[in-house]
Each structure stands twice: as C-alpha cells, then as structure tokens.
Amino acid sequence: MQKMSLRVRGLLNDRSGLAAVEFAFVFPIMVVMYFGVLELASAIAVDRKATQVARTLADLTSQMASVADADIIGFGQAAKAIMTPYPRDPLISSVTEVYVDKTSGVARVQWSKGLTISTTGAVTIATTAPHNPGDVVVLPPGLVVAKGTFVIWSEVSYRYVPTIGYVMAKTGIPFSDTAYTRPRQVLCVLYPTAGLTDCAAPK
Predict the structure, then answer these.
(1) Using CA atoms, how far apart are residues 41 and 71, in angstroms rounded to an integer?
(2) Spans of the chain below 50 pLDDT
(3) What was the pLDDT predicted at 18?
C-alpha cells in the first residue's frame, strides 16, 4: 500500500506533459484567431480599395472635356489595377454626370455609364445604363447648393469573398462607396457616343 501510495503521489506531482495538454487546448483557438485577423485585414484593405476606385473613376472623368466608351474602359482598367489582387467577385461600378437645375436645385442625370470588371479581369461597359437621362437623383446637400452646375458621380459595388471563411461569412461581405467631383476643365463633360454633344440642361 505504501508503494502504491508513493506511485499515486508521484503521478499527481508529475508535470512533464502539462505543456503539451495546454497547447492542445490553445492551438485551435490560436489558428482561428490567426486566420480571423488575416481575413479582417483583407476585408479592410478591400473596403479601402473600393473607396479608391470610386474616387479614381470620378477624378479621371472630371479631368476630361469629353469622354467616349474607350475612355470609360480605360478608367475601368485603372480600377482593375487598384483592386489587384482581390477581384474574386465582379466589381460593378458606374460613372454618371448630373446637372443641378439653376432654378429648382433638382439634380437630374445628364448621362450615365455602367462598368463591370469580371472575375476573369475583363472590363466591359454595361448594356443597360444604371441611370437614364433626365432621372431625378439625390445628391449630398453640399452639392446641390451650387445651382446650374454639373457633378460627376461614381458608384462602386464589390462583394469580398474570404479565402477561408472561419470568421466571416463564406458567401462574402458586400462593400459599396460613392464619390463626387465637379468637371475641372469645362462646364460639363460631354459624351458624344451617348448622344450628349452640348451642356444643355436635361429634361
């Protein structure tokens, strides 16, 4: 009995495998936290890139006197470069010129073009415009104060799909942003191929 008691006491005092047991409990939590931080960091980066795309589309358009379909596709190529290496899901964007009525202050669409960057990297113009000429849209109050002016408005929509999906939804998280600028060189940016050849107010 004495020998057995000594063996039991020695077993209770033995700590040689304690670290391994603790590591077995902690390791899965560490792995989940590690990949969770990676996914969160990637999601934040994608959100910032989507914002940068919206600003770039509006900024590039506002520097032009007139644009054509080829110019819009070129702007899409710039957006594609900004989103690299993240485009695992289509990036949907649009560029719209809006006129703020000089009397009523109502904002109406002058022209609008949709742009898509597919999962394969192809940049194409949407067959259907996101907004029709003459449509009434809502702009931030600070922009409609200046009546009789034009505004370049860009929109971006992107769904970030995490690689692993331990922490975030595997179906993805949608991000969207908008940006506004005013034409820099001219009163309005013309779009001859879309039928806009002058700066007459839309009806």
Answers:
(1) 33
(2) none
(3) 62
